[in-house]
Amino acid sequence: MKKAIIVHGFKGKPNTNWKPWLKAELEDRGFKVDIPEMPNTDHPQLDEWVSKLNDTVGLFESDQIYLIGHSLGCITILKYLETLRDDQKVKACVFVAGFTRPFRNYLNGHDSFFEEPIDWDSVRSHSDAFIAIHSEDDQSVDFEELGQFEDKLNAQLIIVNGMGHFGSGDGVFEIPVVRDVILSTE
Known about the structure:
It contains 6 helices and 6 strands; from the N terminus they run E-H-E-H-E-H-E-H-E-H-E-H. It is globular, with a radius of gyration of 15 Å. Helix 2 packs across helix 3. The mean pLDDT is 91. By secondary structure, the chain is α/β, with parallel strands linked by helices. It starts with a strand and ends with a helix.
């Protein structure tokens, strides 16, 4: 069975903005979809978030696991992939408004996510595909972050405009490009 896990970002909730829409869209296409509520979203800690993601993924039943992250959820996925055994691999990772290093809006309160550098070789070995989606008008994440996903993961880049940081405050309640890119990797 195809399984998709959507990891929300800082101060996020499973039932906000585009996540319920994407869950329904993927379930209609035969996916089992989980949107875990990450712990301590106001004061996130990397070990708690990676542990929650690990519990949500559970046992690897097949190579049909898709990980979709939003904002801080993206670095959580990267750090989770580092923890996998050599024989474990997911089908695809989709990063929405992702970032890989601390910067202006994330300098305080997210230190645990950046204490250790990302092991890019390990991350690359644990997914068949990487896709990074960014909106040109995102006021929270620097546009240059998109280049990190391309340089370090050879990720497919998708640039949109008018979606800001892909949140409810930006009026984003559907992201068809995320659904479509997941379906294209099946």
